[in-house]
Amino acid sequence: MALLFSFFIDVFFYNTLMKNILPSPLEYKNNNLYFDGKRLDAIAAKKRTPFYLYSKKTLRHYYEHFSKAAVKNNLPSPLVCYALKANSNKDVLAQLKKMGSGADVVSVGELKKALKAGIDPQKIVFSGVAKTAEEIRFALKCGKKGIYSFNVESIEELQLINEIAKKEKRIARVAFRLNPQVSAKTHKHISTGNKTHKFGLLKADIVEALEAREFWTNTTLVGLSIHIGSQLTEMKATVKAIEEISKLALSIDVALEFLDLGGGLGIDYTAEEKSKLTSIDTYMKTVADALEKYYYSKTDHCPRVVFEPGRIIVGKMGVLVSRVVRTKVSDSNHFTIIDAGMNDLIRPALYEAYHEVLPAQASKKLIKTDIVGPICETSDCFGSKRKLPALSAGDLVVIDNAGAYGQTMASSYNEREIATEYFV
Protein backbone atom coordinates (compact mmCIF):
# COMPACT_ATOMS: atom_id res chain seq x y z
CA MET A 1 0.00 0.00 0.00
CA ALA A 2 2.89 2.34 0.81
CA LEU A 3 4.40 1.77 -2.64
CA LEU A 4 1.07 2.49 -4.32
CA PHE A 5 0.57 5.71 -2.36
CA SER A 6 4.16 6.76 -3.16
CA PHE A 7 3.68 6.11 -6.88
CA PHE A 8 0.56 8.22 -7.18
CA ILE A 9 2.14 10.98 -5.10
CA ASP A 10 5.04 10.88 -7.59
CA VAL A 11 2.58 11.14 -10.49
CA PHE A 12 0.80 14.05 -8.82
CA PHE A 13 4.01 15.95 -8.23
CA TYR A 14 5.23 15.10 -11.72
CA ASN A 15 2.15 16.71 -13.28
CA THR A 16 2.10 19.75 -10.98
CA LEU A 17 5.82 20.44 -10.84
CA MET A 18 6.21 20.19 -14.59
CA LYS A 19 3.55 22.89 -14.96
CA ASN A 20 4.81 25.12 -12.17
CA ILE A 21 8.57 24.97 -12.74
CA LEU A 22 9.55 23.82 -16.21
CA PRO A 23 6.73 23.01 -18.62
CA SER A 24 6.83 19.53 -20.11
CA PRO A 25 4.84 17.87 -22.90
CA LEU A 26 4.13 14.91 -20.58
CA GLU A 27 1.04 14.61 -18.42
CA TYR A 28 -1.01 11.81 -16.87
CA LYS A 29 -4.77 11.83 -17.46
CA ASN A 30 -6.87 9.02 -16.02
CA ASN A 31 -3.67 7.03 -15.45
CA ASN A 32 -2.71 7.26 -19.14
CA LEU A 33 0.42 9.12 -20.20
CA TYR A 34 -0.11 11.90 -22.72
CA PHE A 35 2.46 13.74 -24.82
CA ASP A 36 1.40 17.18 -26.05
CA GLY A 37 -2.23 16.26 -25.44
CA LYS A 38 -2.06 12.95 -27.31
CA ARG A 39 -2.06 9.53 -25.72
CA LEU A 40 1.39 8.02 -25.89
CA ASP A 41 0.16 4.57 -26.85
CA ALA A 42 -1.69 6.09 -29.82
CA ILE A 43 1.43 7.96 -30.94
CA ALA A 44 3.55 4.81 -30.65
CA ALA A 45 1.03 2.43 -32.19
CA LYS A 46 2.69 2.22 -35.63
CA LYS A 47 6.23 3.27 -34.70
CA ARG A 48 9.18 1.02 -34.14
CA THR A 49 10.70 1.43 -30.70
CA PRO A 50 12.92 2.85 -29.41
CA PHE A 51 12.37 6.30 -30.85
CA TYR A 52 12.86 9.91 -29.80
CA LEU A 53 9.73 12.02 -29.56
CA TYR A 54 9.90 15.84 -29.65
CA SER A 55 7.41 18.62 -28.98
CA LYS A 56 7.51 21.72 -31.17
CA LYS A 57 5.28 23.52 -28.69
CA THR A 58 7.75 22.95 -25.86
CA LEU A 59 10.72 23.89 -28.05
CA ARG A 60 9.08 27.19 -28.97
CA HIS A 61 8.21 27.88 -25.33
CA TYR A 62 11.79 27.62 -24.10
CA TYR A 63 13.40 29.56 -26.93
CA GLU A 64 10.87 32.39 -26.68
CA HIS A 65 11.10 32.48 -22.89
CA PHE A 66 14.90 32.63 -23.01
CA SER A 67 15.14 35.32 -25.69
CA LYS A 68 12.35 37.46 -24.21
CA ALA A 69 13.89 37.28 -20.74
CA ALA A 70 17.12 38.71 -22.14
CA VAL A 71 15.24 41.62 -23.69
CA LYS A 72 13.15 42.12 -20.55
CA ASN A 73 16.31 42.57 -18.49
CA ASN A 74 17.57 45.27 -20.88
CA LEU A 75 20.59 43.36 -22.12
CA PRO A 76 21.90 45.19 -25.20
CA SER A 77 21.00 43.56 -28.55
CA PRO A 78 21.07 40.00 -27.16
CA LEU A 79 21.98 37.27 -29.65
CA VAL A 80 20.94 33.70 -28.88
CA CYS A 81 23.30 31.22 -30.52
CA TYR A 82 21.74 27.82 -29.88
CA ALA A 83 24.34 25.11 -29.08
CA LEU A 84 23.91 22.39 -31.69
CA LYS A 85 25.75 19.86 -29.54
CA ALA A 86 22.57 19.48 -27.47
CA ASN A 87 20.35 18.44 -30.40
CA SER A 88 21.14 18.97 -34.08
CA ASN A 89 17.93 17.57 -35.57
CA LYS A 90 17.15 19.39 -38.82
CA ASP A 91 13.56 20.16 -37.82
CA VAL A 92 14.70 21.52 -34.46
CA LEU A 93 17.15 23.81 -36.27
CA ALA A 94 14.50 24.88 -38.78
CA GLN A 95 12.15 25.88 -35.96
CA LEU A 96 14.87 27.79 -34.15
CA LYS A 97 15.91 29.58 -37.32
CA LYS A 98 12.32 30.74 -37.82
CA MET A 99 12.38 32.24 -34.34
CA GLY A 100 15.59 34.15 -35.08
CA SER A 101 18.18 31.93 -33.44
CA GLY A 102 21.83 31.85 -34.30
CA ALA A 103 24.11 28.86 -33.66
CA ASP A 104 27.03 27.83 -31.51
CA VAL A 105 28.98 25.07 -33.27
CA VAL A 106 32.01 22.99 -32.36
CA SER A 107 32.71 21.19 -35.65
CA VAL A 108 32.39 21.74 -39.36
CA GLY A 109 29.63 19.11 -39.36
CA GLU A 110 27.55 21.21 -36.97
CA LEU A 111 28.38 24.32 -38.98
CA LYS A 112 27.13 22.70 -42.18
CA LYS A 113 23.90 21.64 -40.44
CA ALA A 114 23.33 25.18 -39.19
CA LEU A 115 23.89 26.61 -42.66
CA LYS A 116 21.62 24.00 -44.24
CA ALA A 117 18.88 25.08 -41.82
CA GLY A 118 19.26 28.61 -43.18
CA ILE A 119 20.94 30.17 -40.14
CA ASP A 120 22.82 33.33 -41.08
CA PRO A 121 26.63 32.85 -40.90
CA GLN A 122 26.75 36.20 -39.11
CA LYS A 123 24.81 34.60 -36.27
CA ILE A 124 27.20 31.66 -35.88
CA VAL A 125 30.03 31.35 -33.34
CA PHE A 126 32.56 28.52 -33.65
CA SER A 127 33.85 27.13 -30.35
CA GLY A 128 36.06 24.12 -29.57
CA VAL A 129 39.71 23.45 -28.77
CA ALA A 130 40.65 21.47 -31.90
CA LYS A 131 39.51 23.45 -34.93
CA THR A 132 41.40 22.11 -37.93
CA ALA A 133 42.77 24.07 -40.88
CA GLU A 134 40.02 22.60 -43.06
CA GLU A 135 37.31 23.67 -40.61
CA ILE A 136 38.74 27.17 -40.23
CA ARG A 137 38.95 27.61 -44.00
CA PHE A 138 35.36 26.49 -44.49
CA ALA A 139 34.08 28.82 -41.75
CA LEU A 140 36.02 31.77 -43.16
CA LYS A 141 34.40 31.33 -46.56
CA CYS A 142 30.79 31.09 -45.35
CA GLY A 143 28.81 33.88 -46.96
CA LYS A 144 30.40 37.24 -47.75
CA LYS A 145 31.93 37.86 -44.33
CA GLY A 146 32.43 34.39 -42.91
CA ILE A 147 31.02 33.42 -39.53
CA TYR A 148 30.27 35.89 -36.74
CA SER A 149 33.21 34.76 -34.61
CA PHE A 150 35.81 32.11 -33.97
CA ASN A 151 35.92 31.62 -30.20
CA VAL A 152 39.69 31.12 -29.91
CA GLU A 153 40.91 28.68 -27.26
CA SER A 154 44.71 28.76 -27.71
CA ILE A 155 47.43 31.05 -29.07
CA GLU A 156 48.34 28.36 -31.58
CA GLU A 157 44.78 28.39 -32.89
CA LEU A 158 44.87 32.18 -33.27
CA GLN A 159 48.11 31.90 -35.23
CA LEU A 160 46.59 29.28 -37.56
CA ILE A 161 43.42 31.33 -38.13
CA ASN A 162 45.51 34.36 -39.05
CA GLU A 163 47.67 32.35 -41.47
CA ILE A 164 44.67 30.82 -43.23
CA ALA A 165 42.84 34.15 -43.38
CA LYS A 166 45.91 35.72 -44.98
CA LYS A 167 46.05 33.00 -47.66
CA GLU A 168 42.33 33.35 -48.34
CA LYS A 169 42.58 37.16 -48.35
CA ARG A 170 39.96 37.39 -45.62
CA ILE A 171 39.70 39.09 -42.26
CA ALA A 172 38.74 36.61 -39.53
CA ARG A 173 36.57 37.79 -36.68
CA VAL A 174 37.79 36.28 -33.43
CA ALA A 175 36.88 36.28 -29.74
CA PHE A 176 39.10 34.98 -26.98
CA ARG A 177 37.50 32.34 -24.80
CA LEU A 178 38.63 33.23 -21.32
CA ASN A 179 39.17 30.45 -18.80
CA PRO A 180 37.95 32.32 -15.70
CA GLN A 181 39.30 29.71 -13.26
CA VAL A 182 36.02 29.09 -11.47
CA SER A 183 34.56 25.80 -10.28
CA ALA A 184 30.96 25.28 -11.34
CA LYS A 185 28.81 23.02 -9.18
CA THR A 186 28.10 20.38 -11.77
CA HIS A 187 29.40 16.94 -12.77
CA LYS A 188 33.19 16.92 -13.15
CA HIS A 189 32.93 15.73 -16.74
CA ILE A 190 30.83 18.74 -17.84
CA SER A 191 32.67 21.45 -15.91
CA THR A 192 34.78 23.56 -18.27
CA GLY A 193 35.83 26.77 -16.48
CA ASN A 194 38.94 25.88 -14.48
CA LYS A 195 42.59 25.99 -15.46
CA THR A 196 42.78 22.18 -15.15
CA HIS A 197 40.30 21.92 -18.03
CA LYS A 198 41.31 21.95 -21.69
CA PHE A 199 39.05 24.87 -22.55
CA GLY A 200 39.87 28.53 -23.02
CA LEU A 201 42.84 30.78 -22.34
CA LEU A 202 44.11 32.27 -19.11
CA LYS A 203 43.99 36.05 -18.83
CA ALA A 204 47.78 36.41 -18.96
CA ASP A 205 47.96 34.43 -22.21
CA ILE A 206 45.26 36.60 -23.80
CA VAL A 207 47.10 39.80 -22.87
CA GLU A 208 50.31 38.35 -24.30
CA ALA A 209 48.58 37.36 -27.55
CA LEU A 210 47.13 40.86 -27.96
CA GLU A 211 50.66 42.28 -27.97
CA ALA A 212 51.92 39.91 -30.69
CA ARG A 213 51.39 41.89 -33.90
CA GLU A 214 52.11 38.91 -36.14
CA PHE A 215 48.82 37.31 -35.07
CA TRP A 216 46.69 40.26 -36.17
CA THR A 217 47.48 40.93 -39.84
CA ASN A 218 44.25 39.20 -40.95
CA THR A 219 42.29 38.85 -37.73
CA THR A 220 40.31 41.32 -35.68
CA LEU A 221 39.24 40.95 -32.06
CA VAL A 222 35.48 41.44 -31.82
CA GLY A 223 34.62 39.83 -28.50
CA LEU A 224 35.41 37.84 -25.39
CA SER A 225 33.65 34.66 -24.32
CA ILE A 226 33.27 32.36 -21.33
CA HIS A 227 31.61 29.00 -20.83
CA ILE A 228 32.06 27.32 -17.44
CA GLY A 229 30.07 24.11 -17.79
CA SER A 230 26.77 22.41 -18.42
CA GLN A 231 23.73 21.61 -16.24
CA LEU A 232 24.33 24.68 -14.05
CA THR A 233 21.69 25.03 -11.34
CA GLU A 234 23.17 27.81 -9.20
CA MET A 235 24.71 31.11 -10.20
CA LYS A 236 27.70 31.84 -7.91
CA ALA A 237 30.26 30.56 -10.39
CA THR A 238 28.47 32.33 -13.26
CA VAL A 239 28.63 35.67 -11.44
CA LYS A 240 32.32 35.14 -10.69
CA ALA A 241 33.00 34.30 -14.34
CA ILE A 242 31.18 37.48 -15.45
CA GLU A 243 33.34 39.45 -13.01
CA GLU A 244 36.48 37.96 -14.56
CA ILE A 245 35.45 38.56 -18.18
CA SER A 246 34.47 42.13 -17.26
CA LYS A 247 37.87 42.80 -15.67
CA LEU A 248 39.58 41.54 -18.82
CA ALA A 249 37.32 43.59 -21.12
CA LEU A 250 38.01 46.76 -19.12
CA SER A 251 41.76 46.15 -19.10
CA ILE A 252 42.28 45.88 -22.86
CA ASP A 253 42.24 48.75 -25.32
CA VAL A 254 39.74 47.20 -27.74
CA ALA A 255 36.18 48.36 -28.46
CA LEU A 256 34.53 44.95 -28.27
CA GLU A 257 31.37 44.20 -30.25
CA PHE A 258 30.14 41.54 -27.83
CA LEU A 259 30.58 39.60 -24.62
CA ASP A 260 29.69 35.94 -25.08
CA LEU A 261 28.49 34.50 -21.74
CA GLY A 262 28.14 30.93 -22.96
CA GLY A 263 25.34 28.62 -21.91
CA GLY A 264 24.88 25.68 -19.58
CA LEU A 265 21.70 26.60 -17.71
CA GLY A 266 20.32 23.37 -16.26
CA ILE A 267 16.95 21.65 -16.20
CA ASP A 268 15.29 19.58 -13.48
CA TYR A 269 16.12 15.91 -13.92
CA THR A 270 15.67 15.12 -10.20
CA ALA A 271 13.51 16.24 -7.28
CA GLU A 272 16.60 17.84 -5.71
CA GLU A 273 17.24 19.87 -8.85
CA LYS A 274 13.60 20.97 -8.89
CA SER A 275 14.08 22.49 -5.43
CA LYS A 276 17.25 24.45 -6.22
CA LEU A 277 16.88 25.13 -9.93
CA THR A 278 17.67 28.60 -11.24
CA SER A 279 14.85 29.76 -13.51
CA ILE A 280 15.41 31.47 -16.85
CA ASP A 281 14.12 34.75 -15.41
CA THR A 282 16.41 34.56 -12.37
CA TYR A 283 19.33 33.64 -14.59
CA MET A 284 18.80 36.65 -16.86
CA LYS A 285 18.37 39.03 -13.94
CA THR A 286 21.53 37.66 -12.33
CA VAL A 287 23.45 38.11 -15.59
CA ALA A 288 22.14 41.65 -16.08
CA ASP A 289 22.94 42.65 -12.49
CA ALA A 290 26.44 41.18 -12.68
CA LEU A 291 27.22 42.92 -15.97
CA GLU A 292 25.97 46.22 -14.59
CA LYS A 293 28.04 45.85 -11.42
CA TYR A 294 31.27 44.67 -12.99
CA TYR A 295 31.20 46.18 -16.49
CA TYR A 296 28.55 48.61 -17.69
CA SER A 297 28.80 50.86 -14.62
CA LYS A 298 32.52 51.29 -15.26
CA THR A 299 32.50 52.25 -18.94
CA ASP A 300 30.50 54.09 -21.57
CA HIS A 301 31.02 51.21 -24.01
CA CYS A 302 28.06 48.84 -24.35
CA PRO A 303 28.81 45.65 -26.32
CA ARG A 304 25.96 43.27 -27.08
CA VAL A 305 25.53 40.04 -25.12
CA VAL A 306 25.73 36.64 -26.79
CA PHE A 307 24.32 33.46 -25.23
CA GLU A 308 24.95 29.81 -26.15
CA PRO A 309 22.02 27.90 -24.60
CA GLY A 310 21.49 24.25 -25.46
CA ARG A 311 19.95 21.98 -22.85
CA ILE A 312 17.57 24.67 -21.51
CA ILE A 313 16.09 25.09 -25.00
CA VAL A 314 15.65 21.44 -26.00
CA GLY A 315 16.07 19.24 -22.92
CA LYS A 316 12.44 19.23 -21.82
CA MET A 317 10.94 18.95 -25.31
CA GLY A 318 12.03 15.35 -25.89
CA VAL A 319 11.60 11.83 -24.54
CA LEU A 320 12.92 8.40 -25.48
CA VAL A 321 10.06 5.95 -26.02
CA SER A 322 10.77 2.26 -25.47
CA ARG A 323 8.97 -1.06 -25.03
CA VAL A 324 9.52 -3.76 -22.49
CA VAL A 325 11.19 -6.83 -24.00
CA ARG A 326 10.76 -9.00 -20.91
CA THR A 327 11.16 -9.03 -17.15
CA LYS A 328 13.61 -11.13 -15.17
CA VAL A 329 14.02 -12.13 -11.54
CA SER A 330 17.40 -13.02 -10.04
CA ASP A 331 16.89 -13.92 -6.40
CA SER A 332 15.77 -10.65 -4.81
CA ASN A 333 16.64 -8.57 -7.90
CA HIS A 334 13.97 -7.66 -10.41
CA PHE A 335 14.88 -6.43 -13.89
CA THR A 336 12.68 -4.71 -16.46
CA ILE A 337 14.50 -5.16 -19.76
CA ILE A 338 13.60 -2.61 -22.43
CA ASP A 339 14.57 -2.19 -26.07
CA ALA A 340 16.29 1.19 -25.57
CA GLY A 341 19.93 1.05 -24.61
CA MET A 342 22.84 3.20 -23.53
CA ASN A 343 23.64 3.69 -27.22
CA ASP A 344 20.34 5.65 -27.45
CA LEU A 345 20.84 7.67 -24.25
CA ILE A 346 24.32 7.44 -22.78
CA ARG A 347 23.97 10.02 -20.00
CA PRO A 348 23.07 7.53 -17.22
CA ALA A 349 26.05 5.31 -18.11
CA LEU A 350 28.47 8.18 -18.75
CA TYR A 351 27.58 10.60 -15.97
CA GLU A 352 25.45 8.44 -13.66
CA ALA A 353 22.74 10.91 -14.68
CA TYR A 354 19.19 10.49 -13.43
CA HIS A 355 16.30 10.31 -15.91
CA GLU A 356 12.72 9.71 -14.84
CA VAL A 357 11.27 6.48 -16.29
CA LEU A 358 7.50 6.61 -16.69
CA PRO A 359 5.01 3.91 -17.70
CA ALA A 360 2.46 4.63 -20.40
CA GLN A 361 -0.25 3.35 -18.04
CA ALA A 362 -0.22 3.83 -14.30
CA SER A 363 -1.20 0.75 -12.31
CA LYS A 364 -1.97 -0.22 -8.72
CA LYS A 365 0.52 -3.09 -8.82
CA LEU A 366 3.93 -1.67 -7.96
CA ILE A 367 7.35 -3.20 -7.61
CA LYS A 368 10.93 -2.05 -7.24
CA THR A 369 12.83 -2.83 -10.40
CA ASP A 370 16.01 -2.05 -12.32
CA ILE A 371 15.33 -0.70 -15.80
CA VAL A 372 18.03 -2.07 -18.08
CA GLY A 373 18.71 -2.17 -21.80
CA PRO A 374 19.99 -4.75 -24.28
CA ILE A 375 23.62 -3.56 -24.53
CA CYS A 376 26.35 -5.95 -23.38
CA GLU A 377 27.55 -3.60 -20.63
CA THR A 378 26.55 -3.65 -16.96
CA SER A 379 26.35 0.15 -17.10
CA ASP A 380 23.44 -0.16 -19.56
CA CYS A 381 20.97 0.76 -16.84
CA PHE A 382 18.46 3.62 -16.79
CA GLY A 383 17.56 3.33 -13.12
CA SER A 384 17.93 1.07 -10.11
CA LYS A 385 15.19 0.14 -7.63
CA ARG A 386 12.67 2.38 -9.36
CA LYS A 387 9.04 2.19 -8.26
CA LEU A 388 6.99 1.15 -11.29
CA PRO A 389 3.86 -0.84 -12.06
CA ALA A 390 4.47 -4.48 -12.86
CA LEU A 391 5.21 -4.33 -16.58
CA SER A 392 4.95 -7.00 -19.25
CA ALA A 393 6.46 -7.57 -22.67
CA GLY A 394 5.24 -4.94 -25.12
CA ASP A 395 4.35 -2.32 -22.51
CA LEU A 396 5.52 1.22 -23.27
CA VAL A 397 7.81 3.27 -21.06
CA VAL A 398 9.16 6.77 -21.50
CA ILE A 399 12.59 8.03 -20.46
CA ASP A 400 12.03 11.71 -19.80
CA ASN A 401 14.17 14.77 -20.55
CA ALA A 402 15.92 13.19 -23.52
CA GLY A 403 15.69 16.20 -25.84
CA ALA A 404 19.27 17.22 -25.07
CA TYR A 405 22.29 14.93 -25.42
CA GLY A 406 20.18 11.99 -26.52
CA GLN A 407 20.36 11.47 -30.27
CA THR A 408 23.46 13.68 -30.66
CA MET A 409 25.42 11.31 -28.39
CA ALA A 410 23.85 8.14 -29.81
CA SER A 411 25.98 5.40 -31.34
CA SER A 412 25.60 2.13 -33.21
CA TYR A 413 27.37 0.15 -30.47
CA ASN A 414 26.50 -3.56 -30.67
CA GLU A 415 25.58 -2.74 -34.31
CA ARG A 416 22.28 -1.24 -33.22
CA GLU A 417 20.46 1.19 -35.49
CA ILE A 418 20.22 4.83 -34.44
CA ALA A 419 16.69 5.44 -33.20
CA THR A 420 14.37 7.58 -35.35
CA GLU A 421 13.34 11.09 -34.27
CA TYR A 422 9.70 12.22 -34.53
CA PHE A 423 7.99 15.56 -33.92
CA VAL A 424 4.45 15.77 -32.65
Automatic annotation (TrEMBL):
Q: Name one GO biological process term.
A: lysine biosynthetic process via diaminopimelate
Q: What is this protein called?
A: Diaminopimelate decarboxylase
Q: Name one GO molecular function term.
A: diaminopimelate decarboxylase activity
Provide this UniProt record's keywords sorted from A to Z.
Amino-acid biosynthesis, Decarboxylase, Lyase, Lysine biosynthesis, Pyridoxal phosphate
Residues covered by the Orn/DAP/Arg decarboxylase 2 N-terminal domain = 70-314
List the catalytic residues.
376
Q: Which PROSITE patterns match?
A: ODR_DC_2_1 (PS00878), ODR_DC_2_2 (PS00879)
Its gene name is lysA
Q: Which reaction does it catalyse?
A: meso-2,6-diaminopimelate + H(+) = L-lysine + CO2
Q: Does the keyword Lipid biosynthesis apply?
A: no
Please tell me whether the keyword Lyase is annotated for this protein: yes
